[in-house]
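User: Predict Helicase, POLQ like's structure from this.
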Amino acid sequence: MNAGKQEIKVKRVSSRKRTRESLLKRLLTPAKKGEGVCLEECSKNWRIGSIMADVKATEILKDHNFIFVRSFVQYCSDSEDLFGGYDSILEDSSLLAKLDNAEQNERRRDAQPSGDADAVAAPNFSSLLQPKQEIRTDSVLDSLGDESFEDLPPSQLQFQEQILENAKRRRLQEGDKTSTPKSTNGTGMESNSGGASRHTNIRRSMMDKLKRTMVCNAASPSSLSRTIMLKEAVVLEEISVAMQAMETVSDETTDLGPFFGLPTKVKDLLHSLRGIKNLYGIILAWQETCLNLECVQERKNLIYSLPTSGGKTLVAEILILRELLCRRKDCLFILPYITLVQEKLHMLGDGSRGAVIEMTLAKVLYVNKATQIIGMSATLGNIRDLQAFLRAENYTNDFRPVQLQEYVKLEDSIYEVDPKEENGFRFSRLLNFKYSSSMQKIDPDHIIALVTEVIPTHSCLVFCPTKKNCENVASMICRYLKEDFLKHREAEKSILLRELKESGNGSMCPVLRKTIPFGLAYHHSGLTSEERKLVEEAYSTGVLCLLTCTSTLAAGINLPARRVILRSPYVATDFLKRSQYKQMVGRAGRAGIDSVGESILILQDKDRKMARSLVCAPMENCYSNLMHDDGKGLLSLILSLIGLNIATSVDQMRDFLSGTLLYVQQEQLCADRSLWEVVQRCVQHLKDKGLVSVTELSQGHSLQVTKLGRATYKGSVDLAYSKVLYQDLTKGLDGLLLNSFLHLVYLVTPYDILSQCKPEWMTYLRQFSLLSPAEQRMSAAIGVPESFVVRQVAGQTVKKGVDMDVVKRMYLALVLFTLLKETNLWSVAEKFHLSRGFIQTLLSSSSAFCSCVLHFAEELEEFWPFKALLTELMRRLSYCVTAELIPLMEVVGVMESRAKQLYKAGYKTLSHLANADPAALSKTIENLYRKQAVQLVASARMLVNEKAAALQEEVDDLLMVPLDLPTP
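Assistant:
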């Protein structure tokens, strides 16, 4: 040994082992401020898995301030000796081996007489630990004294504080011993034997000390899971990289991140939650191309159009997530999905709804040109008009994941659609199904033959022209199915029947009770939302193999089938449009399941010519609907522009309208007069209605909304009903009935649903007689006396004129009033002989209109009493359950039947549900799967947090010092 350098001679080891040694040395040496160990930095020199396996260090290293730890090899119990049998993992060059050898040599030296020539020379290992006299105090950290360790990781801090505390306690004990005589060896020196004994009693094995401390570190609780911290760090890092990339995008080759500019976590969630491994289970060229377009990366507007089921929605979702996560921007997703958003179908070419979407887009384009607009659609004939309107680029592709084969059926022959043929059709085959004479009478269109070719192995959709026809066709098919259909997934059908019965509070549709055992069901607006959801889920999972449905199922609902059958080329009495036909047949073909999809349109000979143009004609054009229904959309647009101060002068109005789709198509839509003449007529019409006023200014005329006009556009009230609503509310103030909800319910019954109401007079009279005297007087006051209803029942003519709209509105108000009292939709539907789906639609429409009336009243001071009254009524209409269930009904996915189950089980508030254990919840509540329980708890927690945040915001506002506080 070189005494001058005071080094330990060690055996030469490989660079890999020296790296391990240096890592452990760093782990066991007090870290400096801000210092940590990163396994990522070391992974280039040695394999992480190797040292994990050698030392079982997964949990040992748990609380040290690592940045990333990617591999966890194995876990050990808290009490296990993690170093048992592995003390010499680095042979004689390991740190623990050195400590062990040094300590043994120290003990031997203490045991040898001081003058013994054969004494073993103790190596000086000051390069690893502190001087010898500090080792005798059983602490390698004594030299640090009482300095603060607040910057150290928790595990090292705990280790050092424990050793310092033991050292201080030992010093005190030794101080007490100084008063006792010490034995000497005659030279004034303390007896070696006594010293050795004292050192043996005082000093503990450094190796054991390190073992125990590291085991303690592994067992100590951590506030956050290391895995969670790692995942969060990775996601944040990827988002940061993507944000930087997006700020510097210059061309389409720029790499935006691991998943189209999104963190890998998003890709993992798409895979785990929706089974999407790439973009369509496989990498689709069009999706990848679309997402990497230069205009998309530069945030320009884009319209991409593909056939139905081409995978358009997923691309939109990825683009939205990119805006939310990476650019921290808000997004507006306007959905055409009927079921998802309760029949709010927004498409530019769709009547009044098309006018709404056009107004919205035009305002966005005018107010903030930096907003990116992404439009998606099926193939259109005039896509260039939309490009001009949105100032957007276009991406078009004819991709479809499953090939679609279109057929028509005439009598017992099947023809393939072929536009190249002279008549558009080419003979394919004859139906091979034996019909008896009785079957031929019941099923002249051979629907049974067509469906039994595919079910129950494959799925089938049968589109019918009316709701009643859906039910009749489903019942008819069941009459001729074999008993084998009853055995197919029998147990799951039983569960579905039970769930349907629970959703109806013990009641169930007799048609569904008959058809579901065979694997069939019908689907139309007459079903409640709960029934539709259960039927759709059962069909998606294959429990049901056939649905008879109306055309509403075709728009946006992802319920594909192997074969789609169109019972007739009509919707009610109207011949199908090309777009409707394409939506229906577009349901054929299940991606990842079928290699082909089939559609069959059943025709009568009289419809052959019209059908040819239906299936072979080019796609229809999309036109502006601002002029729809005598320009109602344009009137609403002008009123809101003035009210929002977007356009308050003639020039500003002209400038705004030049950015609408109506302006692009004015030659086709305003052929008889110029667009500017139309606008002037609309402004005059608003003035006549008392919604707009004109002020003379030196530089011209200025347009302002009146109080009534402001209430109209802020309440989103149809202009046709604005004045009527004002009169009804004014009249209501004169004698408002407050001992029941009837009067208020009447005031919020929607005007636009009256056309669907045909009162049954005997039912009207029966329900009228159940009202209290005060309620009957209220009915007479609005214009529906009992005498009028009696005369209608008797078939007598009424001499005095009665407003039938008021009569219908009162009838619907009685339906809602009865529903609020009984909260049983099935019994109310039976009493009024109405479909339960219609009553549910009436309820949701009334709830929405109640909100409109509330905002309308808030803008007019004379209607101040309605503010508090309508707030409570809107809450009742939104859920239509007993008061104690309303908090639970706020949770997404909780319907009335589920709310009753939760309440009965003790989960009576949002707080109960938010703090519930999903595993226990799924065991307690019948037919509640673990995944559903997790979703319910997560939704409840989100609601609780939102409510708490809202309350905290109110507190902050109250405690905030006013900015305009007067100063002395």
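The domain at 255-396 is CATH 3.40.50.300 (Rossmann fold).
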